[in-house]
Structures are given as structure tokens and as C-alpha cells.
Amino acid sequence: MSRKIAIIATDYFEESELLSPRQALLDAGYTVDVVAPHGGEIKGLDHVDPGESVPVDKTLDDVNADDYDAVVVPGGVVNADHLRVEARAQQFIRSILNAEKPTAVICHGPWLLVSAGLVNGRTLTSYNTIRDDITNAGGTWVDQAVVQDGSLITSRNPNDLPAFNKTLLAALQT
């Protein structure tokens, strides 16, 4: 049985934080859908430089959390800022995390968790500038390459991708 993973992103995602987990998941035999608020393609950034565009497999209107075994949320300041106010993205991630399915979020991605009301009482990490948002939302922020709190997996930045991917793949094996 193939397991299905959603990567939720929109324009100006951090390129490595989408491409690296997607490739790790594909290499491990998982089916991966890039899910965005709009169809077509989404534009990536390599920090502040233009990056690759990635085709959107499904829009947030076309997906149901019950059809997925896990979700990945890459960072990128603009990506994360746009996703955090997207009600469909909030509902999707709420459904995945409340069902205790692996929820892997990196860099600025935890903004979506904050806006979806999913941080209170949890321990996580993020890009360091998101620390105040997490603590103000009732979470505990730690400075570690990867943090796993139940089914929630978080990392700080692209340098943490090896640990992030390894932890996500291990969580999918349970």
C-alpha cells in the first residue's frame, strides 16, 4: 500500500525545504502531492534569489486530509506568511495533526501552526525569528536541529534538512 504525503506551499517557498523532503519521500516510495491555494505552478526562492518553480498537483480546494498520511510545510518568509492566513491550509493542517499523523514543518512554516491554534502546550523549533510567535502562542521553543513532539516534527532552517528528513521518514514507519 502506497502512503500519500501532502506538501503544502505557495509562491516563494524556500526551494530546498520543499525539494529535499519531496525527494526523500519519493526515494522512499511514497506518493507526494504538492498542494497549493492555486493551480499551475508555485515559485521557489533560494533564500532571496529566484529558484525553481514546481507544478501544483492539487489545490487546497481539491484535497481532504483523510486522503493523506502526513503533511510537510516548507518555509520561506513569503510562503509562510501567505499560508498562515489561508483558512483552507489551517483546516487541513489541523485535521492532519489532530489525527496524530506526521506533520513536518520547517523554518518559517510554524507560522501556519500558530495561526491554526496548534502550538499551545507543544515543544517545537523554527527559524529563530519565529521564536516569539511560538512562545506567545503558548508553545515552548528550543534551539535544536529537529524537535519531535508527538506527531509534530519541526526544524530550524535548510541546514537541518538531513535531520528533518530522517525524522520524517522514521515517523512514517511507525
At a glance:
The protein has 174 residues and is an alpha/beta fold.
Written overview of the protein:
This protein has 174 residues and is α/β, with parallel strands linked by helices. The chain has a domain at 4-106 and 158-172: Class I glutamine amidotransferase (GATase) domain (Rossmann fold, 3-Layer(aba) Sandwich). It is 33% helix and 28% strand. The chain has 6 helices and 12 strands. The strands form 3 sheets. Strands 6-3-1-7-8-12-11 form a 7-stranded mixed beta sheet, with helices on both faces. Helix 1 (15-27) packs parallel to helix 6. The longest helix has 13 residues, at 15-27. It is globular and about 35 Å long.
- Specify the biggest β-sheet: 7 strands, mixed
> Secondary-structure element order, as H and E?
EEHEEEEEHHEHEHEEEH
**Share of helix, binned:** 25-40%
Q: Based on helices, strands and strand pairing, what is the structural class?
A: alpha/beta
Strand order of the largest sheet: 6-3-1-7-8-12-11
End-to-end Cα distance: 14 Å
Can you tell me the overall shape? globular
Q: Could you tell me the radius of gyration in angstroms?
A: 14 Å
**What portion of the residues fall into strands of 2 or more residues?**
25-35%
Q: And the CATH topology of the domain at 4-106 and 158-172?
A: Rossmann fold
DSSP summary: helix tally: 6
- Give the CATH superfamily of the domain at 4-106 and 158-172: Class I glutamine amidotransferase (GATase) domain
Question: Uncertain regions: pLDDT < 50 for 5+ in a row?
Answer: none
Reported CATH architecture of the domain at 4-106 and 158-172: 3-Layer(aba) Sandwich
User: Quick one: how many beta strands?
Assistant: 12
Query: What is the CATH level 1 assignment of the domain at 4-106 and 158-172?
Result: Alpha Beta
